[in-house]
Amino acid sequence: MEKPSRVVVKIGSSSLTYENGKLNLRRMDRLVRVLSDLQNSGVQVVLVSSGAISVGFRKLGLPEKPHDIPGKQASAAVGQCELMYTYDKLFSEYGHAVAQVLLTRDVVENAEMNENAVNTFDTLLGLGAIPIVNENDTVSIDEIKIGDNDTLSAMVATMVRADLLVLMSDIDGLYDSDPHTNPGARLIERVERITDEIMALGGGSASAVGTGGMLTKLTAAKTVTAQGIDMVIVSAENPDILYDVLDGKPAGTRFAAQ
Fold first, then answer.
1. Which intervals hold domain Aspartate/glutamate/uridylate kinase (predicted)?
2. What does the pLDDT average to over 113-128?
């Protein structure tokens, strides 16, 4: 398989933080090191990073993730600062510049705004910067909300004409049944076509801090594979697995581009 030249990597909230809501700095550093190395090798990288609300509400001293929109927006405003500060510091240590890109659904769906966003991505990538993308939760309301970063990452992969989308999660791929309840569940290593039977394997979010689940990942796969983009779901526990993914080696579940 030809090595991808432009890759979108998404990492979820539960993979970035400990149970107490604090950032998992060791994992973040390992992720940044691998992404920096891939960038050094000539692969253009876009990172879609969750975690703003999860980090923010903990930093504000709130007992749980807010359910009201103002609380979520305030938490996102605080948490996004913390996330970008940490990413900027870590990527700088490996010699790379990062750029914050915050999106809402209207930016993606409005033709003129979409074109402007695409031009921004292309310019940043051409200059060697690493765009770090999140939903703009600080101003997002239901009318313009994307809702989860699996969906956002599929939109971004399509916008930037990526060769590959990698979803890094707290689960290492798609199983033929729920591995949390069935110890004998079998990992499906490759999906050639997303059928109704495959979609039926989706479920809710298994994480207290995440917003996505397997269903949102399968929906993302359906979106990008229809655009000729491969997608892979892998565990975020060891970011070095990205090397295997880009080399085309067996890792997690790969959804073949149509």
1. 6-235
2. 96
